[in-house]
Amino acid sequence: MTSRLRPFITSVFTGRRLQNIKRGLHEMKRRVSGRSHQVVYFHQIDDPYSHLLVQALARVQSSYDIDLQLRIVPPPADDAAPERTALEDYSRRDAAAIAPFYDLQFDDPGNQPTAEICQLAERALVATGNKVSAAAEIGAALWSGDSQTLSKLPLVSDTLAAEQQETGRREREALGHYLGGTLYYAGEWYWGVDRLPYLEERLIQAGLQRSGHRQVVKFQSRPAFMSKPAQRRLTLEFYPSIRSPYSYISMPETLDLPDHYPVDLIVRPVLPMVMRDLPVPAVKGRYIMRDTKREADRLGMPFGHIFDPVGDPVRRCYSLFAMADEAGKGGELLLAFCKMAWSEGIDVGSDQGIKLVVERAGLDWSAASEVLDNTDWEGPMEENRVQMMASGLWGVPSYRLLDDKGREVFSCWGRDRIWLLAHEIQKALV
Fold first, then answer.
1. Exposure of 263 by Cβ count < 10 A (0-12 exposed, 13-18 middle, 19+ buried)?
2. What's the whole-model pTM score?
3. Coil, strand or helix at 388
4. CA pair distance 217, 94, nearest whole angstrom
5. Domain 36-205: CATH superfamily, name plus number
6. Residues 257-278: pLDDT tens digits?
7. Three-class secondary structure of residue 237 per DSSP
8. With contact defined as beta carbons under 8 Å apart, do 180 and 49 qualify?
């Protein structure tokens, strides 16, 4: 009974109706209390994405009639960042890559700031009263390693700075999040510059945009391909997990890329994190579901009627991947599985469910049933994981772009970077 009810429950949890009810209640409480429209920003001092976002927020603050409050927070807990070093290294590289597209500044220094300079920066920021404009300037000094400039600024005590960070951590936890570089407004969360457009759209709908001001950040899109025919082809490796909702919503656009760009797509699935004994805390899982839903809505993809495929459903699908890939339908198999699991609430691990997956992918069930439940896939999937992590990637979906000699020219993580991947394809062909 529980498994039958779960898809219905998840559809309610991620649905627009519940969202609108919550928004209405928050607005009613705000009006009754007489409060202004408050946006709370949780700033992690040594997080590149926080540094990008706080630069954009200086513009947001002048563009909207809001009360923007900054809180200092520590990095996420270990269970929310199981590959911390990889996360830090990738975040710097990624932030440097996307900054120019948003007219922001970030140069990867090649390593994380020291604990000492981070402490200086936090003490300086608290001394300003946690001003957003000050955070951008202090961040610039921090990431350039300019401890001399920071030490000359007014500073509070280490104790007071630590107290404010702990207060910020507790507030973030109480409101239901775990990352730095996040914004909270009336019951909903927005991470980084990638999700800032959602907040801005909501502020515009509420009539809070000041006269003469435009939306600060808009969603990035992939460029139109250059008119000249390419002289060579590239290889694009795609690393999804069929238990990842982000992988699901990335699949249609990813599978479509070879129709628009000179790339040969190789699909390299990996085992889900929880099936590799990497934890996914409940607070992280809840945010991912809600975030995937709004992204799916923006992309026009169905999502929310969910049957969690963790465990045997994943194993059964992966046991068919080699056969499907040999027939040129590996991506189609994974997409059919994900669509049924993440938007139709079908038990894709049952014999009936996996049969339907096979048929929707355009494959022969009698041939598939001959290889179903083999374990030959385990070695190749582990090899995929090792290769992905060797490129400094650990999450899904991930991408590796290779030149015509098999050398990596670019790698990235997340559906949010498909637009950047398209830019890098063009760059590699010039």
1. buried
2. 0.94
3. helix
4. 18
5. Glutaredoxin (3.40.30.10)
6. 999 899 999 999 999 988 888 7
7. strand
8. yes
